[in-house]
Each structure stands twice: as C-alpha cells, then as structure tokens.
C-alpha cells in the first residue's frame, strides 16, 4: 500500500518535471547519489534546492532511518514539493523550507548534518558551501550535483553561451578551491551530470 503510493508519487513527480521543465536529477545521477549515501549512512541530510521534492523523497526512501531537511525558493515548486512529499508518505521525515538558501537563518535548521547535498543555482555553489559547511558534522560529506554542467564545463569558455559564462567560471573556481582545500578530501565522479564529493576530515 505504502509502496504503491510512493511509486505513484514518484511517477507523478517525473511526469510533472517533464511537463513543466523542472530540472530534477536523472536516473543515473540520483542512482549514484543514493549508492554513495547508502555507504555513508547519514542520519541527518540537508539539501539545498528541493525543486518539487524528487531527490528528497528518493533519499528518504533509500535510507529508512534518515531525515531530510530541504530548501526551495521558488513558490510554485515549493507548493508542489509540499504536495508530493505529503503524498509520498514521508511527511514525517522530510521538512521543506520555503526560502532563498542564501538568506535562510541557520537557527531554523539542525545544529549538525552528516550529509549536505547542494543542487541549487550553479553559479552560487561556493556561497552555499561557505554558508552551510558550518552545519557539517566532522567526517560529514558535502555532495554537489551538476559539476559537469551538461558538458559546458569541458569546452572553452568562448564557446559557452555568454549568459552562462559567469556560472561556469564560478563553478570551475569552486572546484579548484575544493580540490586544494586541505580540510576536505574531494573527489569528482562523472556519474550523471558530475557529482563532487567533499569529505570533511
Ligand atoms: N534536487 C532536485 C532538483 C533541484 S533543481 C531534484 O533532483 O529533485 C534546483 C532548484 O534549486 C530549483 O528548483 C531552484 O528554484 C532552486 N534554487 C536555486 N537557487 C536557490 C536558492 N538560492 N535557494 C533556494 N533554492 C534555490
Ligand atoms: Mg541537479
């Protein structure tokens, strides 16, 4: 019964994402993220960028004893996420905050998270990281999606559409910083759209 309700919800989310062009994770990316989380077994997860709740629900499904806090700034996506989370049956384990993650007060969140998943505005990753690493437990992991920017991070900047250049430049700088940050063990995976894993030493 519960499983049925869950798979119906996940299908409805995927259909909605296609119909309304919501960039939720694709199968390979979410599959890889979930494998990594199953190894890590984080108890508390924080997500930046809920969209309509897909990845939050998938993480909650994969980790039966974990809780997920997630943040979404867009009004209609937030409303849809609320509906889908309620429908999924995971309302008790997922909290969603309607806010710009760069403005949200850390006080409303938990004091510590074992895993933080960054999947919001790509040009702002470093700012999300710098703000939310304050909540990362020792030995905790920050995962970042879309590090490959659908191939744009691999081509010369002059060939990247102008309006995307700042975002690509910011992402490249952030990647460099993380690879050189002695406080973290950082690894880049090519799965999905590129996942960066930063493990706090
Ligand atoms: N993690 C989701 C997909 C997220 S798409 C999934 O795979 O199911 C990225 C989302 O981040 C968008 O819905 C966008 O509105 C949101 N976002 C972008 N910048 C944000 C910010 N500063 N604060 C909160 N949400 C943000
Ligand atoms: Mg993404």
UniProtKB/TrEMBL annotation:
<dbReference type="GO" id="GO:0008757">
    <property type="term" value="F:S-adenosylmethionine-dependent methyltransferase activity"/>
</dbReference>
<protein>
    <submittedName>
        <fullName>Putative caffeoyl-CoA O-methyltransferase</fullName>
    </submittedName>
</protein>
<keyword id="KW-0489">Methyltransferase</keyword>
<dbReference type="GO" id="GO:0032259">
    <property type="term" value="P:methylation"/>
</dbReference>
<dbReference type="InterPro" id="IPR002935">
    <property type="entry name" value="SAM_O-MeTrfase"/>
</dbReference>
<keyword id="KW-0808">Transferase</keyword>
<dbReference type="GO" id="GO:0008171">
    <property type="term" value="F:O-methyltransferase activity"/>
</dbReference>
<keyword id="KW-0949">S-adenosyl-L-methionine</keyword>
<dbReference type="Pfam" id="PF01596">
    <property type="entry name" value="Methyltransf_3"/>
</dbReference>
<dbReference type="InterPro" id="IPR050362">
    <property type="entry name" value="Cation-dep_OMT"/>
</dbReference>
<dbReference type="InterPro" id="IPR029063">
    <property type="entry name" value="SAM-dependent_MTases_sf"/>
</dbReference>
